[in-house]
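Notes continue from the previous slide.

Worked example: a multi-chain complex. Inputs as given:
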Amino acid sequence: MRDAGAGLSEKTIHYISDVKEDPDWVREFRLRGLKTFLEKPLPTHWASKDLEAIDFDKIRYYLSPGTATKSSWDEVPEDIKRTFERLGIPEQERKFLAGVEAQFDSEAVYSNIKKAVGEQGVIFVGSTEGLKNHPEIFRKWFGKVIPIGDNKFSALNSAVFSGGSFIYVPPGVKVKHPLQAYFRINAENFGQFERTLIIADEGSEVTYMEGCTAPKFNTTTLHSAVVELVALKGAKIQYITVQNWSANVFNLVTKRGLAHENAEVKWIDCNIGSRLTMKYPSVIMKGRKARGEVLSIALANDGQHQDTGAKMIHAADETTSNIISKSISIGKGRATYRGLVHVPKHLKNCKNNTECDALLINATSRTDTYPAITVRGTGNAVQHEASVSQVSAEQIFYMQQRGLTEAQAMSLSVNGFVNDLVRQFPMEYSVELKRLIELEMEGSVG
Amino acid sequence: MRHDSTVLDEAIESGLTNVPRAILSGPAGSGNFPDWFRDQQAAAWKQFQALPNPTRKDQAWRFSNVGLLDLTPFKFGGALPDKERNAILEQSRGLDKVAARLIFAGDQLIERDVVSDQLKKRGVIFQPLERAMVEHRELFRKHFMSQPAILGSAKFAALHQALVSSGTFLYVPRGVEIELPIEIFHWLHGENASVFPHLLLVTDELAKVTVIESFRSLDRQASGFACGVNDLITGPGAKVTYICAQNWGTNVVALQMNTTIVDHDASAMSLNLHLGGKYSRFESLSRLSGEGGRSDLLAISVANGTQEFDARTLQDHVSPHTASDLLYKNALDDRARTTFGGLIRVEPHAHFTDAYQKVRNLLLSDDSEANSMPGLEILADNVRCTHGATSGQVDKDELFYLRTRGIPVSVAQRLIVSGFLNEVIQRLDHEAIADHLRRLVDDKFANG
């Protein structure tokens, strides 16, 4: 096993670059990332003070299994299989998952599906391979949607990234199977810094799904990914995340899509795990009639803070965006929606719709909503609505009367709250999600 | 109502001198204020100097044009020539019927119509600050500047306290209902002048009162600075209505900090009409501290030219079974900007809260900009909280409908905007005040 040791310095960067045999420009990019990361303060003037609990010197920034890419289900580690089982992923689905581009520690391990999509001319590789073998495609967009200095954690990722997917879909190609990745943190004090870049060329369509889990360790770990999406003219990208890190993980992720003319970027984001998640998937609608959408579900239980949201930057006429966010706070959990909608001047016929609904389960639960909306000029319509409520006592009573336990009734009611959003998820994810919610609801009442 | 100019002579001399002083030179230290008051001023001045200037990076000042807050040119104090005094008195026309009236020019009380003997006999106190702090020391001290400014302007609240030299103290005792509104005018006069308007309203149990404060400039073009505080302390079951009609001149930078404390079963309603100023920031905090309390927060901004209006609000639900309802409407033309930053906070244990917050922006030009930050922080359950923010323009169908009836497009647009704003004014449920406010809005539309 290769290991960069704990702590972060130029030495760490050179170690990673050496092991990964980075081209010089990538090494430069990493060093700039490190410099920016060290310069930028923690954003605690608006974000949770809990960020201060991260001890950057104790984190290991690179870890590679050093083994060859795995290709069969039998070789998948037992505990990952158990996680699949717990999530109730159907047998067939599990086999399909054996073909996923999965991240084992920092490196991608599975690649069966590559063959199927490869025939359509789709490039589906790990980030290292992408930068090395296809620089003519990836260099153009790499670090362009999310520049190094976007925020402290995008800078950190730029310095130490490893793993993640690079996908290029050629013009007109509609990828039938969703491309999948599965990420897992399995070493104590280890940070996971995958970097994903998806480019959908003109008129193409692709769906990407990622799931994340981590076994529970005693110390905190850090996950800080950067995901850049580029939808060229008329292309469609759908990016689905089900995040279920264990409750000691700081999950600080920057995700942004660039939608050109008539293109569509849709983020479906579901956050169930982690200690603190800060993630605000964004869409920059750069071309006329571009569309952006974020559907977000967050579930915060004891000791968790889900600080999630969305950003919609309208940068061309007739662009439309939609944000639907639902959060559930259980026990002492805290769910926060933070949003930004920006319609600069001289744009015409831009529309944004934002809906945030929060459900509070216990008296100690907490929820916040902090949107920021800027609209300039006439000819645009922006609306934001948010509500906070709790499970109706009458509903629970009604269900108990029909023989359900209080916990069952509660779980049903909560599933009902998110149902219209969950239905928009692909089948296997919606089933999985419902199970996850049921698991989380265990013991929250009575 | 009794016109009583002799009272002026009794008024304790304020700290103002006849020679204007630069704001940044601090309190004059003269005047006949009690020692405790002067000590507080000195302490506040130190605090003002110690606190950093706001920057846009502060969440409380996000989107705000903090560059306009340069206080170097501004002076306070100075003499009021008779000619100006007369012009101000002449122009201090507000409501036809009022229970009492105070007129301040450059923080000097220049006219005073006191409350009726009957109200006086029942214990109503309506006095300029400098008198109240002496004659009703305990009551005054208990409440004066007792509410920290937590919505971003702590530095300017300190400045206010350091330099305040007059203002209004109104106390309405238990069970007393004052039917007619009480009217207060604050005028800015002269170039680079500044004022520090103050209102402290304390009501006891079941009292009822309506206060309207008007803020104006004698010379509409003169540069000026206003930094006001108004604290409304509402006793159990009391009913307080407060109206601010802000119409400073076009080159005035204004800050106003309000705290409203709503005791159990009390109800407070405030309406802030913002028409004037180059930059006008208004902070409004409503704290629901007793069960059954209710607070209505209303505001209208009519912004044109390069005007900037910046509203920050907090609906702070501390006690269970309380309600609050905020409705802010902005009409923006030319290159105007508005910012709304509002928060509903439901503290732990404040169950059964009912809280609403709605901001609506009507953009009338391509260069106008509306920023909305409606926020929620909910730390209790069994609550009903919603907020909404919309930004849009005049409905084309409505405009078309009016034009088919022969109404010219400019008039039709004005009608639609008036209708949009009128929804807020109607919530006051007070015809005379509503008419007065509508007139002010119409004047702004007519004169730009």
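Summary box: Chain B has three domains: 1-278, 290-393, 395-448. Confidence is low (pLDDT under 50) at residues 1-13 of chain B.
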